[in-house]
């Protein structure tokens, strides 16, 4: 592992994120992995942050309240694993096993990362907020929230960033 500044690979991370990344929440004993394609890396409150969104209806949601998460960005391959983790629920399937993934302990948080991805961010939740109906632009609301399953937004302080 090579530790990097949060911004060293930020452009690459955003490019990869658009194709899919693994969000993991929980700890080494009980966690869940889901696929995300939305998020951002930035700087708030004098700290580097990674912002992710999780709908309360998702199995991962219950693990987010433990206060930390990791984002594992696959630099090559893993398309099938991303598809499985984005289409199955951890309530019904052991996605790590079904996708042939291996979890590796986080360096600074109890939440694991998905091994073999190449780029990793470990985060502690600094702030979370529930999206409020009626405060999102109408076009976005109509396209993404027809069922009113609004996200909770998590802003996580990046406490570790590294590459394989």
Largest sheet: 8 strands, antiparallel
Shape: globular
Along the chain, the helix and strand elements come as EHEEEEHEHHEEEHE
Question: Would you report the number of β strands?
Answer: 10
Per CATH, the superfamily is Electron Transport, Fmn-binding Protein, Chain A
Strand content: 35-45%
Number of helices: 5
Q: Averaging pLDDT over every residue, what do you get? A: 94
Report the end-to-end length measured between terminal Cα atoms.
5 Å
GO molecular function: oxidoreductase activity
Family: Belongs to the flavoredoxin family.
InterPro entries: Flavin_Rdtase-like_dom, Flavoredoxin, Split_barrel_FMN-bd
Domain Flavin reductase like: 14-164
């Amino acid at each position: 592992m090579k530790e990097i500044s949060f911004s060293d690979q930020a452009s690459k991370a955003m490019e990869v994120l658009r194709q899919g990344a693994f969000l993991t929440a929980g700890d080494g004993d009980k966690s869940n992995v889901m696929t995300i394609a939305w998020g951002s890396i930035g700087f708030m409150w004098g700290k580097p942050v990674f912002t992710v969104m999780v709908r309360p209806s998702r199995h991962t949601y219950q693990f987010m309240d433990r206060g930390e998460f990791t984002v594992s960005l696959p630099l090559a391959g893993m398309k099938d694993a991303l598809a499985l983790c984005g289409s199955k629920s951890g309530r019904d399937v052991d996605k790590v096993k079904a996708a042939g993934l291996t979890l590796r302990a986080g360096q600074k948080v109890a939440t694991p990362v998905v091994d073999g991805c190449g780029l990793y961010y470990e985060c502690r939740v600094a702030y979370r907020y529930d999206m409020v109906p009626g405060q999102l632009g109408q076009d976005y609301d109509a396209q993404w929230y027809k069922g009113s399953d609004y996200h909770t937004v998590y802003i996580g302080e990046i406490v570790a960033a590294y590459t394989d």
